[in-house]
User: What shape does this take?
Amino acid sequence: MALTPTAIYRHRTSIECALSILQDGYFNPVSEDPLNGDACMNLWDPQTNLASNITKTGVDIVVAWYGTPAVRGNPRSYTPLPPATCIDFNPWRVVITQHIPKGLLRVLRVEVVDEQRLDDFLQSKFWRAHTPCGLRQEKLRLFRYIRREIRAKDCFLEIKWCRFI
Assistant: This one.
């Protein structure tokens, strides 16, 4: 029996970050400090104004949230972000905080929002080192790879902070 998601959200990021999230199975927020507003996964929905503060662009990771419906957050409050919660700070953003149990956040698909950034990535040394061929074939190969990653892992994500040394 298929579960019905509570909500569908999007996370805008670069193609490099999207691939890392798919391969690792988790999203790594900027901080682990619950007082830091970036100790979570930033998402958006139709009520979100994306005009500001998006730094990495190129693709949207479309995710399904299976947890409790989003609670309304106060963007002027400096209280710690509660763990394992979906918080609606619209019109600015929706966030899912760290320490969610596996099985609540699932990747549905990855959609291109900036073709030029995708083309730049596909022409980069990193990607072309594997099998150099035409740009159209590279796009097909990339999206076949993404589709395989999503299907093979059932793609439920964790949100956890990991210090890189």
